[in-house]
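Session log. Operator J.P. requested a structure for one protein chain; no other inputs attached. Running the standard single-chain path with token output.
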Amino acid sequence: MMLKLVFLILPILVGTITCAKTVTVVVSGKLTCSKNFTYTVKLWEEDKYTHDFIRLDKSDVPAEIGHYYVYGRAHDGWFESDVEPFISVEHTCGTEKVCVCHFFPPTSEDIDEELDIDLEHNSYKYCRGCSQAH
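Structure written below.
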């Protein structure tokens, strides 16, 4: 009886384990400001408690235009059906230092996106990822 139960549960467990998702995420673009600024762009995979850091690109040389490129493999575990990638952008445009986030829709497909951001005129907001970004 116990052996039959194991054979009934085993396919469910194997199916759950193989539900983990991994996608390749590539995000590049241009950051602009009317004044010189520095920046750090970080790629993350969103999780409920602690986000998974993937990679960063930064410039400590002040400029009015910055080109960034972040890439990596975003992975979500057994009980997730999609990966939730996002980028945090820490910058000094118009202020000492600020951080905003751009979230991509949950996906099970690879992402290759160009995203230009005007750091002075945008609707991005501070997010929980920024507090972990430091």
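Operator note: Residues 37 and 93 are 5 Å apart (CA to CA).
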